[in-house]
Write a structure and sequence with these properties.
- By secondary structure, the chain is mostly helical.
- It has one domain: Non-ribosomal Peptide Synthetase Peptidyl Carrier Protein, Chain A (Orthogonal Bundle).
- Helix content is 69%, strand content 5%.
- A hairpin with a 2-residue loop joins β1 (60-62) and β2 (65-67).
- 2% of the residues are buried.
Length: 130
């Protein structure tokens, strides 16, 4: 029976676990890039079209509590842009991984049946006689 440490070592060294770890690290870095794209480039342009409105500053005061719905709107925009960017990356990767389909060569015609061969032989024999 394997010890716990040996089983864990076998699990941790599997390719899927390592791939997942790399994906998490790259995903976190990619998320920072997209967040910067949204916060520093896209949202100022959107705010310009909306009359200089900064979504993160939008809030509503309810008594002593402040509802910062602008931050929520900003988070939704971030999510949509991240989702679209990831979709485009995955689509590009899938397109690169798809093997190039070469047209299949037409299948060789099937060999004629015994009946057909016999009929051809009879035909050829009759042609020779006449």
């Amino acid at each position: 029976m394997k010890s716990f440490i040996e089983e864990f070592k076998a699990f941790a060294v599997k390719g899927n676990v390592l791939d997942l770890a790399v994906a998490v690290v790259i995903g976190a870095a990619f998320g920072k890039i997209v967040s910067s794209l949204v916060e520093d480039i896209i949202m100022p342009i959107v705010g310009l079209f909306l009359g200089g409105v900064d979504f993160t500053g939008l809030s509503y005061k309810l008594g002593d509590a402040t509802v910062a719905y602008g931050v929520f709107v900003q988070s939704i925009v971030d999510f949509v842009i991240v989702a679209v960017a990831i979709f485009m990356v995955v689509k590009a990767i899938n397109k690169m991984q798809k093997p190039v389909e070469t047209p299949a060569e037409p299948a060789a015609p099937a060999a004629p049946s015994e009946d057909t061969l016999l009929l051809r032989e009879i035909r050829d024999s009759l042609r020779r006689q006449y």
